[in-house]
Each structure stands twice: as structure tokens, then as C-alpha cells.
Design a protein that fits this description.
Elements (H helix, E strand, L loop, with lengths): L8 E5 L7 H17 L2 E7 L18 H10 L4 E5 L1 H4 L4 H12 L2 E7 L3 E2 L5 E2 H8 L4 E4 L3 E2 L2 E2 L2 H9 L3 H8 L9
Parallel strand pairs: 1-2, 1-4, 2-3, 4-7
Antiparallel strand pairs: 5-6, 8-9
């Protein structure tokens, strides 16, 4: 990290598979919070495959790490903080916030979705994050809907599997693509 990052971060938290319309709302909120507060913007995510996350066994990724980072950068984010899920999977919510976010990364504002889960076995949620970060240190982004449906990576995967690319694209906020090396 550069010397400018010493002033602290506004960080969007999540796995962000797909960088769909809901993720864009969350990430752009972190970027605007950083600008409002004189902080650096960042996304804290995992470099692991989404199928390695709890409850995601056999899940196909919507975006590769390379694609994900490109989409995140296009939203004006200053930094991507990539974590090894297996390294932190057993952290309690308190340890995750205090040791990683506050002490290690100097996070001043944590931005998460309404359905955010974190810590060992997903014991922490958005309310837990607010309790640990304080009201000024936590921003919870409400759900995003398209045609009355909650935007989610699961729904996008189902649309892609069913060949309903127009519905997947609507939730993604862009056409679905596969980037071959």
C-alpha cells in the first residue's frame, strides 16, 4: 500500500462474484464514502474461487478473479485487498473486525450489503458489523431489485444455466461474458 493509504480506508466487503447491480451499488457507495471522508477506497474480497466459500460447494463462478478485478477497477476503486479465505475462515466476527479491518487495514468505514455474513460459520451479519465498527463506521446498503426480483449471484447463475441471458444481463447491469486467456 502507498503512503496515501495511511489516512484510512472506506472498504466494500464481500465475495463479489459477478459484480452485479447489487455489488455495483455497494462498491460505488464505498467509493463515495471514501471521497466524502477523505479516505482511500477499497474492496476487501477473496482471491479464492467462490466454490470454496461456506455453502458454495460446486458453485460455478460468474467472473474470474481477473475479470472481477477489472470490473472493480472500472468503478473507480483505489485498492483491492485480496484475502485468503482459508486463512481467516475461523476468525470470530470480533477478531475479523478488530484485527484485520481496524488494526491491519486501518478501515474507517466498512460498507456491506443488507445480507452480509462474516466470521466463523457466518456468525456475524451486517448488524454485528455495525456494532463492532460503530454507527459512523458502518454503511449497510439495501437490496437491489430488477423486475421485482432480488439481484443475486445465485439468481444470475440460474438465468445463465437456463439460457436466459437477457435476464442475467439485466441483473449484472451488463452483458454476461467469458474472458478466454
Amino acid at each position: 500500500l502507498s503512503p496515501e493509504s495511511g489516512r484510512g480506508f472506506a472498504v466494500a466487503l464481500g465475495s463479489f462474484d459477478g459484480i452485479h447491480a447489487g455489488h455495483v451499488a455497494l462498491i460505488t457507495r464505498a467509493v463515495s464514502a471514501a471521497r466524502e471522508r477523505g479516505l482511500c477506497s477499497a474492496v476487501w474480497t477473496f482471491h479464492d474461487d467462490a466454490s470454496q466459500l461456506p455453502g458454495k460447494t460446486g458453485t460455478r463462478v460468474i467472473t474470474t478473479l481477473k475479470e472481477k478485478l477489472g470490473l472493480i477497477a472500472s468503478l473507480g476503486v483505489d485498492y483491492a485487498l485480496l484475502e485468503d479465505f482459508s486463512r481467516v475462515r475461523d476468525y470470530s466476527p470480533e477478531r475479523f473486525v478488530n484485527e484485520l479491518l481496524k488494526e491491519k487495514a486501518n478501515v474507517k468505514a466498512a460498507v456491506c450489503g443488507f445480507n452480509f455474513r462474516f466470521g466463523k460459520m457466518g456468525l456475524g451479519d451486517s448488524d454485528t458489523l455495525r456494532e463492532l465498527m460503530g454507527d459512523d463506521g458502518c454503511i449497510i446498503v439495501p437490496p437491489v431489485y430488477r423486475d421485482g426480483r432480488l439481484v443475486s449471484s445465485t439468481a444470475i447463475r440460474l438465468f445463465i444455466s437456463a439460457g436466459e441471458m437477457d435476464k442475467a444481463a439485466d441483473m449484472l447491469g451488463r452483458p454476461f461474458f467469458i474472458d478466454f486467456p
